[in-house]
Every structure is written in structure tokens, then in C-alpha cells.
Design brief:
Alpha-Beta Plaits; Tscrpt_reg_AsnC-like; 2 domains; sequence-specific DNA binding; DNA-binding; 4-stranded antiparallel beta sheet; elongated; alpha+beta; Arc Repressor Mutant, subunit A; Lrp/AsnC family transcriptional regulator
Length: about 150
Amino acid sequence: MKKLTKGDQTLDPIDRALIVALHQNARASIRALGRQVGLSAPGCSERLKRLEGSGVISGFSVELDAQALGFALQALVRVKPLTGKFQQVEQLLAQMAECVVCYKITGDDSFVCHLYIDSVAHLDLTLQKIAPLADTNTSIIKTVEKKLPAL
């Protein structure tokens, strides 16, 4: 079974090592990445361009620390819109400042939202905004572990 491929292109061990290195530090210089994976800076740059061009790497992003931003809690909220309220719920979640990531999903629920919140009271106020439009099921996040898929 091939893992992490784009079209007919299979990732070789250097591609995999480069992806892991970027996952650990997306701000690393081309020269540092090259040293880490055993390539020259131009060779590393070409690999990155190829991985971006083929769609394997779709962008570089900033990872935020909720606590450093002043948010004491994070929560995952499964949202099931009431009959006829799907579009209203979708718009509400898109506008909600507490919602940092929202997935539209299949199954019993329609959305899973990742919230950054100050307190349990803030969570309650946030959920009260959703309650007239949808049923929710909430889990407080205890820890976050960043993992890569099997390469």
C-alpha cells in the first residue's frame, strides 16, 4: 500500500524526512532543512517546490498557543442543527470569534468546532448562542498532541 501520494507520485525517504522536518519547524531555513535531510540548499529548495507544485504541501502556517493568547480552555463542540436551521448555524459558526476551526462533517452531527474560551462561564455563553439553532455535545480539551500521519 502506498502512503501519502499525489497522483502516481510516491514520496521517497527524503520527501518524507523533509515533511517531518517542516512539521517540526515550518520556519526553518532552506539551508537548515537541507542539512537535516542530507541535501544541498538548492536541492532542498527544488524538493520543496516539487512537493508544493504537486499539492503535497499546500502551505505553511502559524500554530497558535491558546494559553499564551489568554484562553484558559479549549473545547470541541459537536453541532447538530435543528430542522431547517443548517444555514443559520453555518453562518453563526463562521462569525463566532471563539471558533478557531470548524469542520463540516457527515454523520449525526453536521459540524465539529474547536473553541478557544476564557472560562467555563465563557463556554456557557458561547453555547447559549448556538442553543436556539442546534443541539450540541461539548468536550473540554485537556491536552493537545501534534502528530503526523503515517508517512
